[in-house]
Amino acid sequence: MSLSAVEKEISDEIQHLIANDRLVLPTLPEIALKARDVAQDPDVTALQLSKVVENDPALSVRLVRVANSPMLRGQRKIDDLHQAIARMGIVYACNLISALAMRQMFQATTSTVDQLMRNVWNHSTQVAATATILCKHYTRLKPDQATLAGLVHQIGILPLLSFAEMRPELLRNSFTLTATIEHLHPQIGEMILRLWEFPPELIAVPQEHSQLDRVVPQADYVDLVMIANLESLYGTEHPLAQVDWHDVSAFKRLGLEPDELTSNKELIEEKTSAVNALN
Questions:
Q1: Where in the sequence is the domain holding 199, given as residue range(s)?
Q2: What is the CATH classification number for the domain harbouring 152?
Q3: Predicted TM-score of the model (pTM)
């Protein structure tokens, strides 16, 4: 995508901040860091991990919802945090805590940016839910990693919107703001995930999920997010909504017929339930 003179000037300014380590990147929420630290103990129990989360009622409720959703549905409904974490397992629960805790990062001091951040979060939960359901049905990859991949695929937008809050003229020009974000967020997203010490297969997601012609030997988390992102944009005016899904090799790697994504009632119902659980 070519940038206008104004867009290039802003892009160069942000690139300069990045190069000089002056662009403020978000850090993982404290509760996610605590959960990660506790989970490093090979002998940690579900009860011990639940103690990390129990003082955050909203996060606790959402973990229980996920445990009862199609993402993880077991034989019976559970209604407390300890049981939810026990059902998930320590690693899954820790990853999910990191993913769901990110919601608190999507806040701003101005109503315009706050709404934009809400839009990003809502889109990310849609993508995460679809990626997770596809992961379960079509791959042997880890659903918790698919959830994380979906929720962080646009994480690079956050510091750009924070930057825009300090530049009112940028907020007033939605075309310039959108073009700048589209141009820079993949690179910044990769930087953030490296800072957070995410695994390489997730670090690749921000940069590669929009590379529809990428060639890899087998389906991965980028493929899941790519397809989920295309599905979320279906029927909109976004340029990616015009893509012929039959030309996207990620579908073939998953063994998924493109039409099934919008016609399979079971997938659609599971995705809807998963979105509700993540929110």
A1: 5-23+105-278
A2: 1.10.3210.10
A3: 0.90
